[in-house]
From TrEMBL:
<dbReference type="InterPro" id="IPR002842">
    <property type="entry name" value="ATPase_V1_Esu"/>
</dbReference>
<keyword id="KW-0813">Transport</keyword>
<keyword id="KW-0406">Ion transport</keyword>
<dbReference type="Pfam" id="PF01991">
    <property type="entry name" value="vATP-synt_E"/>
</dbReference>
<keyword id="KW-0066">ATP synthesis</keyword>
<keyword id="KW-0375">Hydrogen ion transport</keyword>
<feature type="coiled-coil region">
    <location>
        <begin position="12"/>
        <end position="44"/>
    </location>
</feature>
<comment type="function">
    <text>Produces ATP from ADP in the presence of a proton gradient across the membrane.</text>
</comment>
<protein>
    <recommendedName>
        <fullName>V-type proton ATPase subunit E</fullName>
    </recommendedName>
</protein>
<keyword id="KW-0175">Coiled coil</keyword>
<comment type="similarity">
    <text>Belongs to the V-ATPase E subunit family.</text>
</comment>
Amino acid sequence: MANINNLTSKILKDSEERKESILASAEEEKNKILSKKVAKAKELETEIIKKAEVEAKNRKERIISSASLKVRNDKLAAKQEVIKEVFDKSIDVLSSISGDDFLRFVKNTILSLGNIGEQNLILNKDGMELVDLTFIYDLNQSLGDKGNIKLSSNIGNFKGGFILERNGIEINNTYEALVSSLKDELEFEVANVLFN
């Protein structure tokens, strides 16, 4: 019976050692798996942080770029408004010239047009107060056979200058039209004077 007890004891001891070996092996396997998962999680964490940093940087650059563009556009709009005011002011200055200067302007401009034929002279309210039949007579004398100007009874809706009209075709010499025609070529120079 002693043999059976020894055998049983040996079996139990072997089983206990086997159990310890299996548990140690399982613990080791568990630690390897946990270690791999932790490493993978840290890798993933680093990757997510890098992506977030890149996205944040790109977003920041887009916001700054958008803000810079808006500032530039607002600045450009403000400059355009100032330039527009300068040209509007120039029309006001032209509209306030003396009566003699206005009559000289009308006469010299019409004479410089050359052979104009028969035309109706359209003036605004202020111009109608300055131009009389004597002026029209003198103007026609100066034109000779190159033209025949008649004072129109229509009062123009413009700040200053005049319009010559015949059969619906107009030669526009209003201050607004003259300034507008020069605006494209003078805008750059005006901007240089104002903003440099």
